[in-house]
Amino acid sequence: MLRELWTALGGELEFLNKLEITGSGDLPSVFAVSDLATAAIGTAGLAAAEFVAARFGEAASVRIDRRLSSLWFALSVRPQGWPLPPLWDPLSADYEAKDGWIRLHMNAPHHCGAALSVLKAEAKKESIAREVAHWEASALEAAIVTVGGCAATMRSIAEWKAHPQGRVVAAEPLIYTRTLESGSRRAWDGPRERPLKGLRILDLTRVLAGPVATRFLAGLGAEVLRIDPPWWDEPVVVLEVALGKRCARLDLREPSDRDVFIQLLMEADVLIHGYRPEALARLGFDVEQRQKISPGLIDVTLDAYGWAGPWKGRRGFDSLVQMSAGIADAGMKQLGRNRPTPLPVQALDHSVGYFLAAAAMRGLTSRFEKGTGHEARTSLARMAALLIDHACDAHEPIAPETPDDLSENIEETAWGPARRIKPPVIIDGAPLRWDLPASALGSSEPKWQRAG
């Protein structure tokens, strides 16, 4: 998988020799989830090493710990003396319909409201389950999606491969990239040990893949400014992924906030966004306009179900794609369970996040060498197709976590003191290190901090 991810980005095979893999163990799954964790984080590490080689004339070696990579694919943060809130809304669950299973994603209030409006149910799990039982799964899925909700019928791998969207996704590359017009860019002079220092990353992403990408870039010294709309929140996930960032709010439908966004974009080196296809275009910021505003921009994005086909633009999350693509069904059948059995972690989100970080750094390398902009895009569904091709052959459990796995530093987050699992990848001479603790959404002003 490491070779597949790296070559999909156009990386030179010789860089694979710079990577050393240590550690052992497998997350419990019928799929090679720990292999994917190692490969995705390793790909980001290789892209950082390539960037260092371009900037400083020496290729850094990369060492990745398979066990720590697996732990980071779950949660990296460990609260010190206070409880971690639940990761899921209790209404987000798998429900049994007349002819199979369906997953309803209810974490966001508007998604919850959409599903309840279709079901005409109370906001109680028992009420929802009772109403879902009267529906055929695919009909309910379509009805909820039509009114702006998020749902996914559990399909088998074979059913997904035969599905019109499954066929489209299978034909897409792991990542689409293209070179964009060149333009004069701010010079930056980040030191060898903080190679992205002085670079500005504008983060328009939400749970979970995009924020993972920008967290990695922040760990190499980049200034990351995350922008959310005024009404959005994701408390537990922000604690996990806002490390090293400042978080501000803008409503791009408001003229004054649009002006602020344009100014931020003009000064950004990288834009990473997770809006559905055409969402930014409807606001007047399609890819061509973004390049006009910021020539030479590194423009990196993802969506859930791919960039063409009947489900282009469909709302989706990792857990939903696992249901659609056959992952939850395969886990259920191969393990002899009686209900959907997804991956033990949100592996599609995390792997796509590190893959996006690698794409951004490859774009920065190209811009440094050739002065060109860069566009890259991928999807959770395409990463699912990669994982489905890799069954888990070994089943050595991940060794239990110990205090030695935690960094010594206390991170004073907006929610309380915490420690992090040690970084899973070591880039020689440029260790991952975050200058800011995780902060709440909207806790900063929408402006760059460092002089340009």
What this model shows, in words?
This protein has 452 residues and is an alpha/beta fold. The protein has a domain at 2-85 and 170-306 and 345-427: Rossmann fold (3-Layer(aba) Sandwich). Helices cover 38% and strands 17% of the residues. It is built from 17 helices and 16 strands. The protein has helices spanning 2-8, 33-56, 66-72, 109-119, 125-132, 137-146, 157-162, 164-171, 209-219, 235-241, 255-266, 279-282, 287-293, 318-325, 327-334, 347-370, 380-388, and strands at 19-22, 62-65, 77-79, 93-97, 100-104, 151-153, 176-182, 200-204, 223-228, 245-249, 270-273, 298-303, 372-379, 411-413, 416-420, 425-427. Strands 7-13-12-11-8-9-10 form a seven-stranded mixed beta sheet, with helices on both faces. A three-stranded mixed beta sheet has the order 1-2-16. A three-stranded antiparallel beta sheet has the order 3-15-14, with no helix packed on it. Helix 2 (33-56) links the parallel strand 1 and strand 2 (62-65). Helix 1 crosses helix 2 and helix 2 runs parallel beside helix 16 (347-370). It is globular.
